[in-house]
Amino acid sequence: MHPFPKPNQISCIARGDEKYPPRLNDLYDPPERLYIDGDLGLLKTPMIAIVGSRKASTEGLKNAAAFAKELSQAGLLIVSGLARGIDGAAHQATLGLGTKHLTMAVCGTGLDVIYPKEHLDLARNIRNQGLLVSELPLGAPPKSCHFPRRNRIIAALSIGVVVIEAAEKSGSLITARLASELGREVFAVPGSIRHPLSSGCHLLIQQGAKLVRNPKEVLEELVF
Q: Which ranges of the sequence are coiled-coil (predicted)?
């Protein structure tokens, strides 16, 4: 847990407000309110989630960056959860493209509490060039129960979810399952049958997720 310098302005959007993202209403338990720090206008941009393991391999991190860059350049807002590993790589790669290519982090804490603490600078850059989102009030700490709820927001906001690396029991698979239940596209990047972080992606493919080897194959499946 790390206290974030108090933002200049945090917006609170209640369900029913015209600025409230309508895709969240597909959830059986939509957030009653969203706290937003950053550019509210980005909520209208088509979004794609890139998620995966916190303990990603070097190849996984490279894949996350490559997918984030190309999908952002195609006009999609890159969404992830500010976690270590794949999430951080996707956010960072998008920010590296410049101010026309933006990213959004859905947080499992209040927006004045950044977790993990080593992502404080990353969160600051996302706030300045994109937006931070949470359904949790200011001061809310990182509790284990918060992160599955964060994942449902990521799944609902996105038109598709790309899973880069994941174990068979992971939060990324929760996000993918929720996305599938909501009618979103689910994509999985395959890997070695001997790599434990490929097992979750292979399971998703067996369950009907689209196997993708590059960002172009993701874009071919999407309409936005």
A: none
